[in-house]
Write a structure and sequence with these properties.
The chain has helices spanning 16-26, 39-44, 53-61, 77-84, 99-107, 123-133, and strands spanning 2-9, 29-37, 68-72, 88-92, 112-115. By secondary structure, it is of the alpha/beta class. Strand 1 (2-9), helix 1 and strand 2 (29-37) form a beta-alpha-beta unit.
Length: 134
């Protein structure tokens, strides 16, 4: 078990996949810090959250597996490491073997654990389903 774990996400339209990630991440560390992506950063990633940032961060704060919540104002996990000094970075396995995450594996001084992605659910899928039912 690690002392401090870090994970992050937009956490828009909070769903079971988000909960599965946070629950599994907490099992790996004593203290789980979660970065919630700001609206500005989410838009940089070509996403426009449905739920405003202040509400998304409150939702994540209320999850019993989460010990501390921060605003994710930078996508660079190395810069976040320099500020938080976490012991492990935890992400969904949908990021494994991507150029960005391969680079993080080289640059970070801590392990990255890739947790299984919950198939069949995502905020993007939920939004699409809502649009198709209109």
């Amino acid at each position: 078990m690690y002392n401090i774990g870090y994970t992050s996400g937009v956490f828009d339209l909070f769903h079971i996949g988000h909960l599965n990630l946070l629950k599994a991440a907490k099992k790996l560390c004593s203290t789980l810090i979660v970065g919630v992506t700001t609206d500005k950063i989410a838009k940089y990633k070509h996403k426009t959250p449905i739920i405003p940032f202040d509400q998304r961060i409150e939702i994540v704060k209320s999850i019993k597996y989460v010990d501390k919540v921060i605003s994710q104002i930078d996508l660079d996990k190395v810069k976040t490491y320099d500020k938080l000094l976490y012991d492990v970075l935890i992400v969904g396995d949908d990021w494994k073997n991507t150029p960005t995450w391969n680079d993080y594996e080289k640059r970070l001084k801590v392990p990255i654990i890739y947790l299984p992605y919950t198939t069949g659910v995502s905020s993007t899928l939920i939004i699409s389903q809502i649009k198709n039912n209109e």
